[in-house]
Write a structure and sequence with these properties.
Blueprint: H1 24-43, H2 47-65, E1 67-68, E2 71-72, H3 73-84, H4 88-91, E3 93-95, E4 104-107, E5 121-125, E6 139-146, E7 149-156, E8 161-169, H5 178-193, E9 202-213, H6 216-226, H7 236-251, E10 253-264, H8 269-275, H9 279-299, E11 303-307, H10 310-321, H11 326-335, E12 351-354, E13 359-361, E14 364-373, H12 385-389, E15 394-404, H13 406-430, H14 436-453, E16 458-469, H15 472-488, E17 492-495, H16 500-506
Antiparallel strand pairs: 1-2, 3-12, 4-5, 6-7, 7-8, 8-10, 8-11, 9-10, 9-15, 12-13, 13-14, 14-16, 14-17, 15-16
Length: 515
């Protein structure tokens, strides 16, 4: 890379708290400890009591500040509490009732005009039951009109959000020259900047890139349709090619790339009300925003295939829960084009089990990671290449972004600057030094203030990675490969122990993963 190549910088993870850098839970523990120390010293000041007080102080400090697998004991406490009170092992198991729900059929009378009798069922339709696992409770899949067609919309009934998904592709980014890569990244930045306006109904935008098992039958069908029939199948070159095709499905991976857009019906209630009542107005507003986003993506040289229809959106969810069943579903769609996609009623898993470090659904075991640290040094445009392009395992990589309105962003960064200055003065008076991490955080805050003053948009974002495999041993090997690739990309991954079911939904096109 040339010396004049553009570099990109990620600020450190901000750890601002209720008092200085202390979180509210840390303040509560420290406060309770001080009260307990005062009470104990009032009771007695004997040597034994003083030692007990010192022990209490040491335990409280360790509880609040000593990290264990990336988190302090104070941070682990609510996770452990939720896990323990989750109802035991049966409380972390899910079994769908869909298979036993049956189907409905209307039987024509034997004396009908067309002569169909009781042995000729007609107008068969699927059962109306739509069931999701507990981590997706309240999520439903709606159909919305867009330019004479139907698109799929994921509605979260609890959060009152509506999410649509666009299937896209980025053509040969890694093969482009440096100037073209930077131009395309600037185009993506322009797309994001348009979402951070004051009146925007957009709550979140998410990009999701994942690998899924390749359908080797597609290559075989292409060979059958396009080969020169004058060359016999027993010819040596043809035999070698067929052997290569037969092994391709086991080692190759297809790549899916989605952009999900989510609106908040509560935040944009005025706009929703103008377009209709209830779901009608919300999906109409979402369809309008999706259409605008698709146009901007095309202008940024991103190939847009279109907004996913209900059955294709259901397939996107189903492929995540049951990745190794994808080949069979594709084969069925190949012989019966009317079956393309998945019935929305079957978008979720048929069975799921949650353990402390992994999540099992149908044909796969999954492990989800949080990107705890992004590169701490300046990086180039292709810094994610080791993770996105050089791994041959099933994995999903996503970034969930939430646009911050300019007025809110300016107010928060000014408050952060004031806090940094006051904290620096307090450290100077009390004789404490400013650590390198603290200086980096202050520098990042200063850059944020300058960038906002220059008119740039601000986003909150979080990244997640889910690794999938057919058995636990293969899962651990795949996790090791992904962790190594993440290190090459200068990412720090933290496994979401105790939160695997919830974390798995962060790598679905649902716009989840931010508080």
């Amino acid at each position: 890379m040339s010396s004049d190549a553009r570099r990109y910088r990620f600020g450190p993870l901000e750890r601002r708290g209720l008092v200085g850098g202390l979180r509210s839970s840390q303040v509560a523990v420290i406060g309770a400890t001080l009260v307990l120390v005062i009470v104990l010293l009032q009771i007695s000041r004997a040597t034994v009591m003083v030692l007990a007080v010192l022990l209490v102080i040491v335990l409280a400090a360790g509880f609040c500040f000593t990290p264990i697998v990336g988190r302090t004991s104070e941070q682990w406490t609510p996770i452990l509490w939720t896990w323990v009170t989750g109802g035991g092992r049966r409380g972390r198991r899910y079994r769908s009732q869909i298979p036993t729900g049956g189907r409905r059929a209307r039987m024509r009378a034997a004396h009908s005009q067309n002569g169909s009798g009781p042995d000729h069922p007609a107008h068969e339709r699927p059962a109306e039951t739509v069931e999701m696992p507990p981590e997706l409770a309240g999520v439903s899949l709606l159909a919305a009109p867009l330019r004479g067609e139907e698109i799929g919309v994921l509605k979260d009934n609890h959060a009152k959000t509506y999410t649509g998904v666009i299937a896209v592709r980025v053509r040969s980014f890694g093969l482009l020259d440096q100037a073209e890569q930077e131009r395309r990244l600037a185009g993506w930045g322009s797309v994001l900047a348009g979402l951070a306006r004051e009146s925007s109904p957009v709550r979140r935008i998410q990009w999701l890139e994942r690998t899924v098992p390749s359908d080797g039958d597609q290559i075989a069908r292409y060979l059958q349709e396009e080969r020169d029939t004058t060359v016999p199948l027993t010819a040596s070159p043809v035999v070698s090619y067929i052997e290569l095709v037969e092994s391709a499905g086991a080692i190759t991976r297809d790549h899916d790339l989605f952009v999900a857009l989510q609106i908040d019906a509560k935040k944009a209630w005025r706009q929703v009300k103008r377009l209709g009542r209830g779901d009608q107005g919300a999906v109409a507003l979402l369809a309008r925003e999706l259409e605008t986003l698709a146009e901007r993506l095309v202008a940024a040289d991103i190939q847009v295939f279109g907004v996913l229809r209900p059955w294709l959106l259901a397939q996107a969810l189903r492929d995540a829960y049951d990745p190794f069943g994808r080949t069979k579903r594709n084969r069925l769609a190949a012989v019966d084009p009317g079956r393309a996609g998945v019935d929305p009623a079957h978008a979720g898993p048929l069975a799921a089990d949650v353990s402390w470090g992994q999540y099992r659904s149908d044909s796969a075991y999954h492990a989800t990671y949080w990107v705890a640290q992004w590169p701490r040094i300046d990086v180039g445009a292709t810094f994610l290449a080791p993770l996105l392009m050089q791994t041959n395992v099933l994995r999903a990589v996503t970034t969930v972004m939430e646009p911050v309105p300019p007025s809110v962003a300016i107010r928060k960064v000014e408050a952060a600057r004031t806090t940094d200055i006051a904290d620096e003065q307090t450290r100077a008076r009390t004789g404490f030094i400013t650590t390198a991490r603290k200086r980096l955080q202050q520098d990042a805050t200063l850059r944020r203030e300058e960038e906002l003053a220059d008119g740039h948009a601000e986003f909150r974002f979080a990244g997640y990675v889910t690794v999938s495999a057919e058995d636990p041993d293969e899962l651990e090997r795949s996790c090791a490969e992904v962790e190594h690739a993440a290190q090459q990309a200068r990412l720090e991954l933290v496994r979401l122990y105790g939160q695997q079911a919830e974390g798995f939904t962060f790598t679905l096109p649902l716009g989840r993963g931010l508080r």
